[in-house]
Design brief:
The complex is a heterodimer of chains A (271) and B (357).
Chain A (H helix, E strand, L loop, with lengths): L2 H9 L2 H9 L16 H18 L3 E3 L10 E5 L7 H11 L8 E5 L9 H7 L3 E2 L2 H9 L3 E3 L5 H4 L15 H8 L4 E7 L9 E2 L1 H7 L5 E2 L10 E4 L12 H25 L5
Parallel strand pairs in A: 1-9, 2-5, 2-6, 3-4, 3-5
Antiparallel strand pairs in A: 6-9, 7-8
Chain B lengths: L1 H24 L14 H4 L4 E5 L4 H10 L4 E6 L11 E4 L6 H8 L2 E6 L10 H21 L4 E5 L23 H4 L4 H16 L5 E6 L1 E3 L6 H7 L2 E5 L5 E2 L1 E3 H14 L3 E5 L5 E2 H7 L3 E5 L5 H10 L21 H7 L7 H16 L1
Classes of the chains: A alpha/beta (271), B alpha/beta (357).
Chain lengths: 271, 357
């Protein structure tokens, strides 16, 4: 049996088929979009991640009604956990939203496309290289884009800095203001504990051309994950100064801090 | 400057008139290997268009569309091409002075410059001379003889294939191909040259077209050769998304750009995409995996094994996507490709079936 068909048979349940049938998505005659998204792979990816979402990380998602069912939106979560499981789980929450599922587009680190298999695989399930042009083009196509403004500063931070927001890039705010896009802040709780990093082997990372090489567990731990989606934030008007942009970024950071605090309060135990 | 141009144009017109008179007297063209099989009378009222690269399928498709309405003069550096009764054809080396004889003999309204030495042909020096120096000479003649419209065929290769490319590159994206490989420097320089002439001589009404992969019957560029093969290399772990345009659609685009005359730089690509390995499956081609890292290894293999359809300097285009946005051309000229990707791939499937039979 064809490899793709076999994977589809294993992971693509009727529920997944039904979810995907509700997601509007413009693709070409062979099911691809310009960023390499492919329906067949997205089905398998959604099926596999939905299984992990429900059974391994046992995700609780709140505030899903805050995600607009259509139109452009920037989803801005905190970043953690060494591997991009937080992005995948936020993506599954968007795709399975009972109030109106969206095809999630996550912006990923720039080194991923250089890694054999990984870059293509991520593209096929909807992730794209974190370039402002990509983000703008997808918003112009009225897509839901997940951006982690902390970048590797957030995902690669040590366990002792867990739930401390790192410096946010300002690019997302420039795009939100210029392209009139609402921002939905997300507080992710639990991913910090999936791969707690005790140290970063910086020389090895440099040698391999990777942003970090953590000293951590060999596989993600089954920490329970809580996702709190906040109310959409609107930043209108022209950009007057970079200082003004920074203030608005701080507003988003504060909203995410509140959502993280809410998630930590709600959490009854790490696992 | 303007006065000087006017003087040049007047001189050019006088020279042209003299050449026309001489031509009427003697059907043997002063241009080497000219084929004087022309019926001048009916063509006299038609606007004359010089089409370069006439031996190529794209040029011939373009000529077939233009010839009922316009007087076509076809040139190619390879040979004088037999196209049709009414079409004058010359073999011309752009590096030689005889190129000007073609301008002396005909009162061109437009030049459609499709002729280029492909990336797989000849050495880099010769290619650079023909594509860049030769084109400079052609453009100078266009200025000297007061040509009203110039169209240049470029390629999406000029953007370069990089891991950091965003998708849907628009016409303002920097041209990075020469950063990545010196073998593509002539493509980038041809573009830069065209841009210089576009702004320096607005009266040329220059249009530059940057199409995605042109494929279909008769196409012998890199991608055409690759899709005609039975087995081709696949870089282990990489499967970039690609774009293709049917040669007949590209010819339609060239004609549209000429007839609507809206100078500028335009990407030409359909709103459809497919990954490389999917293309191979659909064209019945066996993908042979080769090591992709370190990057020097596949380049070495390509050079050592002499893969013409998979040359070392184009390897990145089979590794990273270079997806262009054809929206500006579609909006400006009302262009919509009429042939699907499936039609292109069916052609290459059929080709293999026929070869087998």
């Amino acid at each position: 049996m064809d490899k793709t068909k076999l994977l589809q048979k294993i992971f693509v349940t009727k529920e997944v088929e039904q979810i995907l049938s509700q997601i509007p998505k413009e693709v070409g005659s062979y099911g691809y979009d310009p960023w390499g998204f492919k329906w067949e792979s997205a089905k398998i990816g959604l099926g596999l991640l939905k299984f992990l979402y429900d059974n391994y990380f046992r995700v609780t998602a709140r505030g899903l009604e805050n995600i607009p069912p259509q139109g452009r939106v920037l989803v801005i979560p905190n970043h953690s956990g060494q591997l991009p499981f937080d992005g995948a789980l936020v993506g599954i929450a968007l795709a399975t939203n009972p109030n109106g599922p969206r095809a999630p587009r996550a912006m990923i680190e720039r080194f991923f496309p250089t890694v054999p298999f990984v870059g293509n695989l991520l593209n096929e399930v909807g992730a794209v290289i974190g370039d402002p042009v990509n983000c703008i083009r997808m918003l112009q196509r009225e897509e839901a884009v997940i951006v982690f403004p902390e970048g590797v500063r957030g995902s690669g931070k040590l366990f002792k800095f867990r739930y401390q927001l790192q410096r946010f890039g300002h690019g997302f705010m420039h795009i939100a203001m210029e392209y009139n896009t609402p921002i939905v802040p997300v507080g992710v709780v639990g991913c910090e504990e999936t791969m707690p990093s005790l140290a970063n082997i910086a020389p090895l990372a440099k040698m391999l051309g990777l942003p970090y090489v953590p000293v951590t567990v060999p596989f993600p731990l089954p920490a329970k994950v809580i996702l709190n989606f906040g109310k959409p934030m609107y930043f209108e008007g022209d950009i007057d100064s970079e200082e003004g942009v920074k203030k608005r970024v701080e507003e988003v950071k504060n909203a995410i801090r509140d959502l993280i605090a809410k998630g930590l309060e709600e959490r009854k135990g790490v696992f | 400057m303007a006065k000087k141009n006017r003087t040049q144009k007047q001189e050019a017109n006088e020279q042209r008139a003299a050449a026309e008179t001489q031509e009427d007297k003697c059907l043997v063209s002063p241009v080497h290997e000219a084929r004087p099989s022309r019926k001048k009378a009916p063509a006299r009222n038609k606007k004359a268009i010089l089409v370069t690269g006439a031996a190529g399928v794209l040029a011939q498709e373009t000529i077939a569309r233009l010839s009922p309405k316009y007087k076509i003069i076809a040139v190619d550096f390879r040979r004088a091409v037999e196209i049709g009764e009414d079409i004058v054809s010359y073999k011309v080396d752009f590096m030689k002075r005889s190129l000007e004889d073609v301008f002396r003999q005909h009162d061109f309204h437009a030049v459609i410059h499709l002729g280029r030495i492909g990336t797989m042909a000849h050495g880099g020096f010769l290619r650079y001379n023909a594509n860049v120096i030769g084109t400079t000479k052609l453009f100078d003649l266009c200025v000297k003889y007061g040509i009203n419209q110039v169209q240049v065929l470029s390629s999406f290769f000029v953007y370069g294939a990089s891991a950091y490319n965003p998708a849907l590159l628009d016409e303002d994206t920097p041209l990075k191909a020469s950063d990545l490989t010196l073998d593509l420097i002539d493509s980038v320089e041809l573009e830069n040259l065209s841009n210089i002439y576009m702004y320096k001589y607005p009266e040329l009404h220059m249009t530059i077209l940057r199409p995605c992969n042109i494929a279909g019957p008769g196409i012998r560029n890199n991608i055409g050769r690759l899709l005609s093969s039975r087995s081709v290399p696949v870089l282990w772990g990489f499967n970039p998304v690609m774009q293709f345009i049917h040669v007949k659609d590209m010819a339609d685009a060239i004609v549209l750009a000429y007839e609507k005359n809206s100078p500028g730089v335009y990407n030409v690509a359909p709103e459809d995409w497919i990954a490389y390995q999917d293309v191979l499956r659909r064209c019945r081609i066996r993908g042979v995996p080769i090591p992709s890292i370190p990057p020097v290894l596949p380049r070495f293999l390509s050079r050592a094994l002499g893969w013409k359809a998979f040359p070392s300097y184009l390897i990145n285009y089979f590794k990273y996507p270079t997806i262009i946005d054809g929206g500006k051309f579609a909006r400006t000229f009302g262009f919509k490709p009429q042939r699907s990707l499936e039609e292109i791939f069916t052609h290459y499937r059929e080709l293999k079936k026929k070869a087998y039979l």
